[in-house]
Every structure is written in structure tokens, then in C-alpha cells.
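Propose amino acids for all 296 sites.
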């Protein structure tokens, strides 16, 4: 009982030192799931077998495992030990770690740079975001600049034309926070991107812009990917500020769903477009007119 109190406190306190803040919820969940499973489903039968073998054996095994845990907690993790001198040596080595193949080191280096509000690192981070050796390095450097408040639209534009689709995807997420006209132009060019995940993120990100060009891009995406239920759902989730363009240009198979959304929002200009289209395309009348009447 006494040892378990120390174990629980130490294990909980160590998590933030080895886990990225964004993943703490998942790490806590896994920790408690494993502990509960071990205590409830695994420990009970094993303990019973140990009691059968020798009455003192369960207590001895328990004491040994707690002793091993104490030794492990008392020794700095190799990665933490390796990182400590880099923090004291300055920012350059931490920035270099953003290119590490080890995800924990990349995350930890980023955390140290952000927590310590690193200065005089903009040039190195910009170079890493533009020309880092791996997609992970470029994306991590860009996000580090963002978290430090130093990301510029020009860097976002560079991400949007990156050779890696995963970096272009991250570039679109960052573009939402830097909605300049130039960034929007580069973002809308990704309508024809060969990677479906990039187009999915584009569909989600375009809803952040009220610019008419975003609506036009959504309409082109709808024509291209309207048959994919996941992409179509993402496109329609961004449709609120772009009903008028989409009502004019939506393909036939999407038109009823878009009409329902326009009715629910009661966008009068979009509804005029709907009515004009229904006159031209009689096949929608039986499905849409009852909805118009009910909503009104």
C-alpha cells in the first residue's frame, strides 16, 4: 500500500516529462487502462497462483517490482539525459533536433523552444521549414514558428507547394491562421492536388475564408469529388458562407443536400438560385418544393 502511493505519484508526475502536451490525455488513458487491467484481470489470477506456490511469494514479487520501478524512476531516461546539455548549450542544437528521426526528440525539442521562448532562431527555423531533410522536419519547424508567433504568410506559401502531401496538408491548416490573398491563391490551387487527404483538408480549410475565390474553389472541389461521401461532407461543412456559388454550380447528385442546407440557413439569395435551378431542372421539384414549404 505504501509503495503503491509513491509509485502512483511518481508515474503520474513523470508523464509530462516524456509525453507531448497534446498527447497527455491519451497517455493518461493508456496508463490507467493498463493499470486497471493488470490489477483487476491479470493480477488476481497470478496472485492466486503465487499464493498456492508459497504464501510469502506474492509479497516478495510485489516488493521486487516496486524496487525495480524505483530504480528506473531514479535514473534519467536516456533521451532526457541526452537532451539536457543541449538546452544549456543554446538554441542551435535544439533546432537541429527538429530534424531527428526520433519523434519524441522532435517533440521535446519543439516544446523546449516554445516554453523557453527561444530568440534568434527565426533564420534556422525558416531554413528548416523550407529545406528540412524530411517532411516531419519541415512541418515541425513551421509549427514551431507558429507557436512562437513568428510564422509568416510567405512560409505558409512555401509549405503549400512542398513536395510532400503531408506537409501541404499541414500548410493548409496553418493557412487558416494566415488568410492573406496570396495564401488563398496558393491554397485554391490545391483543388487538383493528386492526394485525397490534401483535398480533404482543403475542403475543411476553405470554410475559414469568406472570399468569393474560396467559394469557387469549393464548387470545383464539389464537381471533382462530390461522389466521395467523405470529401462531399467536408465540402458541405464549409458551405455556409458560399451557398450562392455552390447552388449555381453543384452537381446534380449533391444538389438536394445543398438545397436542404440553404433552406435550413434560410439564405434568401441562395434560395432564389435554388428556385431558378428547379425551374430549369424539373427533376428536383418533387423533392425540394415540399421542403421549402415545410421550412417556410
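Proposal:
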Amino acid at each position: 500500500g505504501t509503495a503503491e502511493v509513491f509509485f502512483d505519484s511518481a508515474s503520474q508526475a513523470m508523464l509530462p516529462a516524456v509525453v507531448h502536451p497534446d498527447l497527455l490525455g491519451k497517455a493518461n488513458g493508456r496508463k490507467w487502462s493498463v493499470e486497471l487491467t493488470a490489477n483487476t484481470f491479470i493480477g488476481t489470477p497470478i496472485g492466486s497462483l503465487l499464493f498456492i506456490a508459497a504464501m510469502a511469494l506474492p509479497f516478495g514479487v510485489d516488493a521486487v517490482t516496486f524496487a525495480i520501478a524505483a530504480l528506473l524512476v531514479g535514473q534519467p531516461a536516456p533521451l532526457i539525459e541526452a537532451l539536457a546539455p543541449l538546452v544549456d548549450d543554446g538554441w542551435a542544437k535544439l533546432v537541429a533536433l527538429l530534424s531527428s528521426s526520433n519523434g519524441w526528440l522532435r517533440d521535446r525539442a519543439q516544446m523546449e523552444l516554445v516554453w523557453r521562448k527561444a530568440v534568434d532562431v527565426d533564420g534556422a527555423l525558416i531554413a528548416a521549414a523550407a529545406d528540412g531533410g524530411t517532411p516531419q522536419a519541415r512541418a515541425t519547424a513551421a509549427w514551431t514558428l507558429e507557436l512562437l508567433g513568428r510564422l509568416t504568410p510567405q512560409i505558409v506559401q512555401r509549405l503549400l507547394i512542398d513536395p510532400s502531401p503531408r506537409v501541404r496538408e499541414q500548410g493548409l491548416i496553418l493557412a487558416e491562421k494566415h488568410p492573406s490573398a496570396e495564401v488563398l491563391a496558393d491554397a485554391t490551387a490545391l483543388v487538383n492536388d493528386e492526394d485525397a487527404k490534401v483535398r480533404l483538408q482543403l475542403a475543411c480549410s476553405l470554410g475559414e475564408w469568406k472570399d468569393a475565390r474560396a467559394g469557387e474553389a469549393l464548387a470545383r472541389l464539389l464537381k471533382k469529388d462530390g461522389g466521395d461521401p467523405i470529401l462531399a461532407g467536408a465540402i458541405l461543412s464549409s458551405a455556409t458562407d458560399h451557398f450562392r456559388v455552390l447552388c449555381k454550380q453543384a452537381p446534380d447528385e449533391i444538389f438536394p443536400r445543398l438545397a436542404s442546407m440553404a433552406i435550413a440557413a434560410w439564405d434568401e439569395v441562395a434560395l432564389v438560385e435554388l428556385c431558378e435551378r428547379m425551374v430549369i431542372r424539373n427533376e428536383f421539384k418533387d423533392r425540394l418544393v415540399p421542403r421549402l414549404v415545410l421550412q417556410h
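The mean pLDDT is 77. The chain is about 75% helix and 0% strand.
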